[in-house]
């Protein structure tokens, strides 16, 4: 693998792509530590040291994860890539509901460009909304759960200063979106995925160092071994797929014979990827947001109920059961809206393709739906168990809040890492080089 990596840098065009990607990722990480105007970075560090980790990061764990820790530093890239992810998810869901978007999706590259434009507009709107909410929470001291007064890290509460911070964070999201598109066009791999991968990996060394300082060497060794086993299991499940054989009949076009080839439809066990985990985390984020807005010290019975069962720590059995059920449900839902067996069967029939032993048309669609349902069931259970495993296995040791091998993190690291390596491998194979994966 190291030899293939050296050959990748010896290839001029691939070397330029890799260096350009690393350059963009470096700028992205630099913007994640630059504070927004009017923010005192020294006071922010004291707030983070004084607050308990699980209380501080629990309320905004998902957003903080996708910002690489920039959210709790109130940096110019504090929102990270989360507004774009949310906008993309919303547009994917609306494509099924709104006929106009569904028609654009079928128009090919021109329609996809229009949907991408709508995604950008929605990203800016969501960035404005989220940045305003974060600044409002920071002004009231609820962002750090009362660990320090807001006047220490936001000395000026002038309206113009607050508006400037909001617009700077929104502009930071637009710049991140532009970075992702640049990497996709001129670099290696999917730009948005690599940005998410970078933010997740960025907090990994600090998490490991925190575990080393807070736990005994034996606990640290057990966590490392458990993490390696978990990574191996995730790699196995992410690579697992069911290949449906497809045979194309021969047909005459003019004087030439076409068809007669055989291929397959790859159906992955985890067809939905990490999207169901993000869906479930976003929904369970709403009760925690309500607790923060209404205040934990209020006598409201609704707040007491939410604090008891859906508190920021996320260790209550009701919370974990709800999280698991939402992941499983969203896995089936997302697969249903992204893979249409009837459409695939119609396309196969149009081009003379058929599954051996299955009649074209409706029987093929029913067969694909049957196979997809049987594959999605273990895939959904796998996603739910991976997301809950850190809570279940390490809750007793007290390291669950700092565990770097969390469900969403490990899925992103493994998934994006495998896709990027495969793209580099394809570049090498075009020049008769052996790839990374042998």
From TrEMBL:
InterPro entries this protein is in?
A: SecY (IPR026593), SecY/SEC61-alpha (IPR002208), SecY_CS (IPR030659), SecY_dom_sf (IPR023201)
Subcellular localization(s) per the UniProt record = Cell membrane; Membrane
Q: Transmembrane ranges?
A: 18-36, 70-97, 118-139, 159-180, 192-212, 218-237, 316-339, 380-397
Please give the PROSITE patterns that the UniProt record associates with this protein.
SECY_2
Gene Ontology BP term (one): protein targeting
What membrane topology term does the record carry?
Multi-pass membrane protein
What coarse category fits the chief subcellular location reported for this protein? Answer: membrane
Task: Please verify whether the record's keywords include Oxidoreductase.
Answer: no
Q: Which HAMAP family match?
A: SecY
Similarity-based family: Belongs to the SecY/SEC61-alpha family.
> Could you describe the subunit structure of this protein?
Component of the Sec protein translocase complex. Heterotrimer consisting of SecY, SecE and SecG subunits. The heterotrimers can form oligomers, although 1 heterotrimer is thought to be able to translocate proteins. Interacts with the ribosome. Interacts with SecDF, and other proteins may be involved. Interacts with SecA.
What this protein is called in its record is Protein translocase subunit SecY
